[in-house]
């Protein structure tokens, strides 16, 4: 640290100034957290958002209060069936800004280069604590919120509602949230209808305990990705040139002649709002161990209507925290991009009427943009006991479109009996026909 | 009725039993379902080329196969060998 003369000129603050020198022996080093003491250019560089980052944080809500813009009350709820918030005190209604428009997330996909990560999708700090302490802006009391299970809490002194609005580094606060539009009673009716057409062979215990009113509204964590890529595929295709038969009567057989072509395609394409599960558990779609594939099936969501984060949307619902980073999801993105490329080139090889055998493929990901979102799902769960902890069956309803998909446990002996019965009837009919012919 | 036809007819019973079990099980458990991202995601093709370089390399005569061996044109999620030349990652 330089020692200035008491009445000397102002201390230089730019790069290369004495402040950039190592501290003298015995003096404490400069702390990067203490930004005010740093030289201005260094401070600016430290505080600037990371290159390629999109800052989506709601700074006006960082104090934890989500006040009504009209009366200031924090008794704010999501208005069921809409994307709006409503103040329970003065009944004023308003909607948060759509992220697509606020941060230009729908634009420039064709110009994407490199990896752009929105601030709510940045890497999770493994040491980050779930328990967070907030100072109530209403009375100054300390309020602790366990962000693993809840994103809002009520100050026990002044009854203000506090929400976790700052993008803490444990993955609990995404860039955007897509509010529930399907009401609970609608979700219950859809689940009842779904199970209603699957009652005959359903597990008896499942039918006995079936209570669709226990459905839970859950905000599940996803990464919504825009990407630009180019893919190459190469293989062989066949074109039918002649079809003919040989032999007579029962020995008649059909033969084919075909030309074999070497086929190669190159496709440049963009993908808008590809949605990937960003939790380890939900992203595991192993059908032998879980039924998460049914939750995956209710995708996609109208992610264009997602709004900037506001914890008030989560009041009355539960949420699950993101625990996967961009790096973890990159292989899955590449796999899906390759699949999309293969689907896109299919019409261009339609002339190969005997099909194409793709043998090689390659993807160049030129640019990606990652946004973390909470998407709304109504979940009904039933745990079927069994070896290795049993199996949890889910029935999921898309909280926006109402698309429903589920797994209903089967009464195995009943289904076996039915299959054997039908097989026996068919076999009896066949034996009767053979006997008649003979 | 020859032996081949009789065997085929006799197999119909077990085959229909397995088919019924499989169809009902799948209807209840939906193990085959997943998000059809290939069709349900907004994709914009900027350019698609390569057909001008397609060339005939061989002929097949007198095959009984109705499709090319290993046809995977509709199996978009089936991965094949990586093409020589390292993939580039967005970085």
Describe this structure in words.
- The complex is a heterodimer of chains A (438) and B (91).
- Helix content of chain A is 20%, strand content 31%.
- Chain A contains 8 helices and 17 strands.
- In chain A, strands 1, 5, 10, 11, 12, 13, 14, 15, 16 and 17 form a 10-stranded mixed beta sheet that branches. In chain A, strands 2-3-4 form a 3-stranded antiparallel beta sheet, with no helix packed on it.
- The model of chain A is unreliable at 1-5 (pLDDT under 50).
- Chain B has a domain at 3-46.
- Chain B is 34% helix and 21% strand.
- Chain B contains 2 helices and 3 strands.
- The interface between A and B is large, with 104 and 74 residues.
Query: What is the C-alpha radius of gyration of chain A, as a whole number of Å?
Result: 30 Å
Main β-sheet description of chain B: none
The proportion of residues forming helix of chain A, as a percent range, comes to: 10-25%
DSSP E strands of chain A, number: 17
What number is the mean pLDDT of chain B?
90
Mean pLDDT of chain A: 86
The count of β-strands of chain B is 3
The biggest beta sheet of chain A reads: 10 strands, mixed
C-alpha geometry of chain B = flat
Roughly how much helix do the residues of chain B carry, as a percent range?
25-40%
Supply the number of helical segments of chain B.
Answer: 2
User: Structural class of the helix and strand makeup of chain B?
Assistant: alpha+beta
- The number of helices of chain A is 8
Oligomer: heterodimer
What fraction strand of chain B?
Answer: 15-25%
Question: Most extensive interface: pair and counts?
Answer: A-B, 104 and 74 residues
Shape of chain A: globular
The ordered string of helix (H) and strand (E) elements of chain A is: HEEEEHEEEEEEHHEEHHEEHEEEH
Ends apart, CA distance between termini of chain B: 69 Å
Our estimate of the beta-strand percent of chain A is: 25-35%
């Amino acid at each position: 640290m330089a020692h200035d003369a008491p009445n000397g000129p102002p201390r230089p603050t730019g790069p290369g100034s004495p402040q950039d020198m190592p501290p003298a022996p015995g003096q404490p080093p400069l702390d990067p957290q203490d930004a005010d003491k740093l030289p201005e250019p260094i401070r600016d560089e430290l505080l600037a958002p990371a290159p390629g980052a999109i800052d989506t944080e709601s700074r006006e809500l960082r104090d934890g209060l989500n006040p009504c813009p009209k009366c200031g009350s924090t008794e704010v709820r999501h208005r069921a069936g809409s994307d709006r918030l409503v103040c329970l005190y003065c009944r004023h209604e308003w909607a948060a800004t759509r992220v697509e428009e606020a941060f230009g997330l729908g634009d420039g996909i064709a110009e994407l280069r490199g990896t752009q990560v929105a601030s709510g999708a940045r890497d999770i700090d493994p040491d980050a604590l779930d328990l967070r302490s907030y100072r109530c802006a209403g009375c100054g009391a300390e309020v602790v919120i366990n962000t693993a299970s809840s994103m809002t809490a009520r100050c026990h002194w002044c009854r203000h509602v506090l929400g976790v609005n700052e993008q803490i580094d444990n993955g609990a606060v995404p860039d955007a949230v897509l509010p529930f539009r399907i009401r609970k009673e609608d979700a219950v009716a859809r689940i009842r209808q779904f199970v209603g057409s699957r009652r005959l062979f359903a597990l008896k215990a499942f039918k006995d305990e079936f209570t669709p009113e226990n459905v839970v509204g859950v905000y599940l964590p996803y990464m919504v990705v825009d990407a630009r890529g180019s893919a190459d595929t190469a293989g062989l295709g066949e074109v039918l040139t002649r079809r003919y038969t040989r032999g007579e009567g029962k020995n008649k057989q059909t033969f084919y002649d075909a030309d074999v072509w070497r086929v190669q395609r190159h496709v440049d394409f963009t993908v808008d709002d590809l949605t990937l599960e960003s939790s380890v558990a939900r992203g595991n779609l192993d059908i032998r161990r879980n039924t998460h594939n049914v939750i995956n099936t209710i995708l996609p969501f109208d992610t264009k209507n997602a709004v900037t984060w506001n914890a008030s949307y989560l009041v009355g619902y539960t949420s699950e925290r993101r625990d996967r980073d961009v790096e973890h999801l990159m292989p899955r993105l590449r796999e899906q991009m390759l699949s999309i490329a293969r689907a896109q080139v299919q019409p261009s090889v339609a002339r190969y009427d005997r099909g194409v055998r793709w043998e090689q493929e390659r993807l160049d990901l030129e640019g990606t943009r990652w946004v973390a979102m909470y998407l709304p799902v109504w979940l009904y769960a039933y745990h079927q006991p069994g070896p290795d902890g049993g199996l949890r069956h889910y029935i999921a309803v898309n909280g926006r479109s109402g698309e429903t998909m589920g797994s209903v446990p089967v009464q195995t002996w009943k289904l076996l009996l039915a299959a054997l019965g039908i097989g026996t009837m068919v076999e009896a009919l066949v034996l009767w026909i053979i006997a008649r012919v003979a | 009725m020859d032996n081949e036809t009789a065997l085929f007819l006799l197999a119909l019973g077990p085959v229909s039993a397995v088919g019924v079990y499989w169809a009902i099980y799948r209807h209840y458990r939906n193990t085959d379902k997943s998000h059809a991202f290939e069709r349900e995601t907004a994709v914009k093709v900027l350019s698609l080329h390569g057909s001008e370089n397609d060339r005939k390399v061989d002929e097949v005569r007198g095959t009984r196969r109705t499709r090319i061996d290993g046809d995977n044109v509709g199996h978009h999620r089936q991965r094949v060998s990586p093409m020589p030349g390292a993939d580039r990652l967005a970085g």
